[in-house]
Amino acid sequence: MSEPRSAFEEYCEAIFELKEDDLDVIQARIAERLAVSRPAVSEMIRRLAAEGLVTVDAGIVLTERGLALAERVVRRHRLAERFLTDILGLSWAEAHLEAGKWEHVLSESVEGAINRMLENPTTCPHGNPIPGSGYLLDRDLIALSTLHVGDQFTVTRIPEELEFTPGLLDFLEDNAILPGRSGVLTAASPDGTVTVKIEDRTIGIGAFAGARILVTTS
Description:
about 220 residues; alpha+beta; six-stranded antiparallel beta sheet
């Protein structure tokens, strides 16, 4: 590949994650996710297509090669996040930033060792599936903001989109809005803001996050 390998990896990863979150894979979203200009995205998509990593005839779609590359990078990122939080005790936000570096440099042997140490985890700390683990996304999950007052819920997944919102990972972790934690919706505003009670604490959650935090109900 003529382009630095990490650049191809970053773009394939972004396309994979947008698709995973059921978002339209368009150049504007890629530009926003990677914090680059739209002309830069347009040029890179052209190069990715030339390398056989994407097709653009019916939207931006990863080819078989592009998907394999994306899955490898995403797998290493999410394994690294799990290692950095579970073993080293880093915060979600710190782990996310560090994993963004590790995903490009981990060898297969180190990746395998981390996986064994963690006893084959199936998701990252935020509930997103680790490619190759056999875990499948539950498409029946619902957004927190769609619940009614009094509904009980269990946090299941924090989509990648929220990981790129400044300060949000720290907020969610500090307030125990974590996969596996249960709570109850105590209030809802017309603007989409909700209030929940988790572990005897009451937390207000803005409309943007509330519409994206995925839960199951009981």
